[in-house]
């Protein structure tokens, strides 16, 4: 055997073993992260995926300190809580990610993710770019997420979608647009996302999203 070849083979074997271990861990701890501006269509894509694959996916309900809106249900839309309670839980290490958005705290608790995974389901997270950065920086998640960014075709289209909701004040819409502009700067970062989709046609966007998920997680 050529000098140094055995070392190369050993490194190759170690890499293969590490890849196999990571794949096994992924199978045991499937997590799918969706990110993108409010109004990009994330919730609609998630609802369609859940409907098409009942029992295969579960949505991790986030915590927030903002007030409950009309039509929302505590424990389904969000886990609504107070700022002191959530800050204490964050300090106690109970959240895998958290961020402050428009003066309110949002976050994903470890318990919420564990609850979905315990049912053998792929856990879906809908979080902002701050949350994604937090997950990527963490060294002990215990799972290996796939990261998908959902983008509107343009800021003009996004603004129209937000206004068509007719649920928020002008000031709130402007805040969301400001946040969206910042989030869009992350869209084209090399290697940051496993998939980037531009939602200019919902059906086409969903088909591409579903194809990726089915392939990535080996969903039948």
Automatic annotation (TrEMBL):
It comes from the Eukaryota. SUPFAM superfamilies: P-loop containing nucleoside triphosphate hydrolases. One of its GO terms (molecular function) is ATP binding. InterPro entries: GK/Ca_channel_bsu (IPR008145), Guanylate_kin-like_dom (IPR008144), Guanylate_kinase (IPR017665), Guanylate_kinase_CS (IPR020590), P-loop_NTPase (IPR027417). CDD domains: GMPK (cd00071). GO terms for cellular component: cytosol. The keyword Cytoplasm does not apply. Residues 29-214 form the Guanylate kinase-like domain. Its EC number is 2.7.4.8. NCBIfam families: guanyl_kin (TIGR03263). Belongs to the guanylate kinase family. This is guanylate kinase. It comes from Perkinsus olseni.
């Amino acid at each position: 055997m050529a000098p140094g070849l055995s070392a190369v083979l050993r490194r190759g074997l170690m890499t293969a073993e590490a890849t196999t271990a990571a794949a096994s861990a992924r199978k045991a701890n499937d997590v799918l992260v969706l990110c993108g501006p409010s109004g990009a269509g994330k919730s609609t894509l998630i609802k369609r995926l859940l409907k098409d694959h009942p029992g295969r996916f579960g949505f991790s309900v986030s915590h927030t300190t903002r007030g409950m809106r009309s039509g929302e249900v505590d424990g389904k839309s969000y886990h609504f809580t107070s700022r002191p309670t959530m800050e204490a839980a964050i300090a106690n290490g109970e959240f895998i990610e958290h961020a402050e958005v428009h003066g309110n705290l949002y976050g994903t608790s470890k318990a919420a993710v564990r609850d979905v995974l315990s049912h053998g389901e792929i856990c879906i997270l809908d979080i902002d770019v701050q949350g994604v950065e937090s997950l990527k920086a963490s060294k002990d998640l215990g799972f290996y997420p796939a990261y998908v960014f959902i983008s509107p075709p343009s800021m003009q289209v996004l603004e129209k979608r937000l206004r068509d909701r007719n649920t928020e004040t002008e000031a709130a819409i402007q805040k969301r647009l400001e946040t969206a502009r910042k989030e869009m700067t992350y869209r084209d970062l090399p290697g940051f996302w496993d998939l980037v989709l531009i939602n200019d046609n919902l059906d086409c966007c969903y088909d591409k999203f579903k194809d990726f998920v089915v392939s990535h997680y080996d969903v039948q």
